[in-house]
Design brief:
Layout: H1 3-8, E1 12-15, H2 20-31, E2 39-43, E3 51-54, E4 57-60, E5 62-63, E6 74-77, H3 81-89, E7 97-100, E8 109-110, E9 125-128, H4 132-148, E10 152-159, H5 165-180, H6 202-220, E11 228-233, E12 240-247, H7 252-261, E13 265-266, E14 285-292, E15 297-303, H8 305-321
Length: about 325
């Protein structure tokens, strides 16, 4: 790793470059004008040799291997958990600075930009990008807790098919087409019919709930009001939706006004919005109806899961590049 190059225009590798998250990350790096010295796009052998475009240049997708990380300053892992686990099992060394977006459960420093202390960042290390639901829940609760002191919270997370990668998206589409043609649906990724339905997905949901809780603990510590989280699989392609109950001494108007002023939030109140479809492509957390209850308030929240995850990963890299140790 070259400190001067890392500060000015790092060489970057994206592992899982053809995944939904990998493509989103590439688009955002280009749109933000992120200074890239050299881009290396990596994939499994099945997808090696594919031509992809980045910043107007054609890139040839390479096979994931330790040698592919030579002269790489930042490696973003956006592949599926299975590929990450296979890489770990091979005993291959990780690059000096790795940002893991896979949610494979590997231990590392969990970093949420704007909330975690940037002083924990180093030019080398293994960083875990939080689950996109952790990012949304953490930002909303932190913002409200700092002002009003949240006593408790409970969140239902509606997971999109894209959180299960390309295969999840394909299966939802295929199930929808099959049902419309009065055919049997295939169930390889999900445990049942997801199209026109909602699934508990017990095993996957329990894993997601556990990961969110662990990451909230890692980011905020044990004294932060830990939310109760329930995840279910929704029949949508993109974007998380949340029904969040908060026990807090504040009116709905005060909560709405606070979030409206917060960076990274949107309180668009157009009819029918916010919705999973309506927020695709936005890196903001969209706050909808705030309903007063007998013990607190219930918030409707929506966010583009891919965009939210990619944004935090890029902001983490930017913070490292600005670190005093590199200047």
């Amino acid at each position: 790793m070259d400190s001067e190059r890392l500060r000015r225009a790092p060489n970057i590798a994206i592992v899982g470059s053809t995944s939904l998250l990998g493509k989103e990350l590439q688009e955002m790096l280009e749109a933000r004008g992120f200074p890239v010295g050299r881009m290396t796009l990596l994939e499994t052998e099945e997808y090696a040799g594919l031509l992809q475009e980045f910043s107007g240049e054609i890139q040839i997708t390479q096979v994931i291997s330790p040698s592919a990380f030579e002269q790489i300053d930042i490696a973003f892992f956006t592949c599926g958990p299975e590929i990450m686990q296979s890489y770990v099992a091979s005993g291959a060394k990780f690059p000096d600075l790795t940002i893991d977006l896979t949610q494979a459960g590997r231990e590392g420093t969990v970093y949420l930009d704007g909330i975690s202390d940037p002083r924990i960042l180093r030019p080398t290390g293994y960083l875990v990008n939080p689950h996109p639901a952790t990012i949304v829940i953490g930002r909303v609760l932190s913002h409200l807790h700092n002002k009003f002191a949240v006593h408790s919270a409970a969140v239902t997370v509606f997971e999109p098919a894209s959180q299960r990668g390309n295969a999840g998206m394909d299966e939802l589409q295929e199930q929808t087409v099959s049902l419309l043609n009065f055919q049997q649906v295939e169930k390889k990724i999900f445990k049942g019919q997801l199209a026109f339905n909602i699934l508990p997905e017990n095993e996957a949901s329990a894993q997601t709930e556990r990961r969110i809780m662990e990451q909230v603990d890692a980011i905020f510590g044990k004294t932060f009001p830990k939310p109760t989280v329930t995840a279910v699989q929704a029949p949508v392609f993109h974007s998380h939706a949340f029904s969040m109950f908060i026990d807090v001494l504040a009116s709905a108007e005060e909560i709405s006004a606070l979030l409206a002023r917060g960076a990274g939030f949107s309180t668009d109140a157009r009819p029918g919005e916010p919705s999973p479809v309506g927020v695709v492509g936005s890196d903001k957390i969209h706050i909808g109806r705030i309903r007063p209850g007998s013990q607190g308030h219930v918030l409707w929240i929506v966010a583009d899961n891919l965009r939210i995850a990619a944004t935090n990963a890029i902001q983490t890299a930017e913070q490292i590049m600005l670190a005093p140790s590199l200047n």
